Amino acid sequence: MKVAILGYGKMGHIVEQVLRERNHEVVAIIDNLDDWQNRIEDFRKAEVAIDFSEPSVAVANMFRAFEAHVPMVVGTTGWYDRMEEVRQACAAHQGRLVYGANFSIGVNIFFKVNQLLAKLMNTQNRYSVEMEETHHIHKKDAPSGTAIHLANDIIHEVDALQQWQLTPCDHTRVVLPVTAVREGEVPGTHKIVWNSPEDTIEITHIAHGREGFARGAVYAAEWIVNQSAGVYPFEETINDECRGE
């Protein structure tokens, strides 16, 4: 499979390593506007592109890929406020896109655990919930896309909750407080805490490195090249794997 890498920071380097381990060919590495000008012909040779760039350029990268008819896997977060615009552009070009708040298999299992716990807690009025996420100091968006995904899933299941807010915020029954910490080179930790006067329930996912995200993105790239046009959440690729497809 011929692959283009968009964004060549730490994640881009690890994606490249995983691609080469799996005997895929990297035909273009694009990290800035000059690269787009100098390597656009190489990019057009790609069968799929993997993006771990930055929120400020991810949407433009997607538009270029749609126009070049190159399927996209986007691990960058922080652009979801433009999702409808992206969907329309993808449909206009009959493009293919996989996106996800987190490409770790473990995190996607954690999503399911979080949903189930929130559903069970919906009738337990003595519990309140809060969340904390910690990432490396280079991460641009806060809270993380993963934290937003987790928070929205909790709000969907718990009738009393109306919104999440970054701390500091008012701790009321309708608000889910989310704390975002940026320190060192932490790959990603997400903790959800349910407190009552009697006890505390915590669920936590701790990433030990970035390789899990890279392997998930490469798996998604291998998956999307065989799909029809459309916009797919990463969870759908996991569901196919669970069905043995």
Question: How would you portray this structure in words?
Answer:
The protein contains eight helices and eleven strands. It is α/β, with parallel strands linked by helices. Strands 2-1-3-4-5-11 form a six-stranded parallel β-sheet, sandwiched between helices. A five-stranded mixed β-sheet has the order 7-8-6-9-10, with helices on one face. Strand 4 (about 70-75), helix 4 (about 85-90) and strand 5 (about 95-100) form a beta-alpha-beta unit. Helix 1 crosses helix 7 (about 210-225).
Determine Rg (CA atoms, Å): 19 Å
Approximately how much helix is present in the residues?
Answer: 40-55%
Rounded to the nearest angstrom, the distance between the terminal CA atoms is: 19 Å
Order of helices and strands: EHEHEHEHEHEHEEEEHEH
Q: Going across the major beta sheet, what is the strand order?
A: 2-1-3-4-5-11
Structural class: alpha/beta
Instruction: State the low-pLDDT regions, or none.
Output: none
Write down the overall geometry: elongated
Largest sheet: 6 strands, parallel
Beta-sheet strand percentage? Answer: 15-25%
Tell me the number of helical segments per DSSP (H or I, 4 or more residues long).
8
Report the average pLDDT across residues: 93
**Could you tell me the number of beta strands?**
11
Short description:
With about 240 residues, the chain is of the alpha/beta class.
Features:
single chain; 245 residues; alpha/beta; six-stranded parallel β-sheet; five-stranded mixed β-sheet; 11 strands
Break the fold down into its secondary structure elements and pairings.
Blueprint: E1 2-6, H1 10-21, E2 25-30, H2 33-44, E3 48-51, H3 55-68, E4 72-74, H4 83-92, E5 96-99, H5 105-121, E6 128-135, H6 145-157, E7 163-166, E8 175-182, E9 189-195, E10 200-206, H7 211-224, E11 230-233, H8 234-243
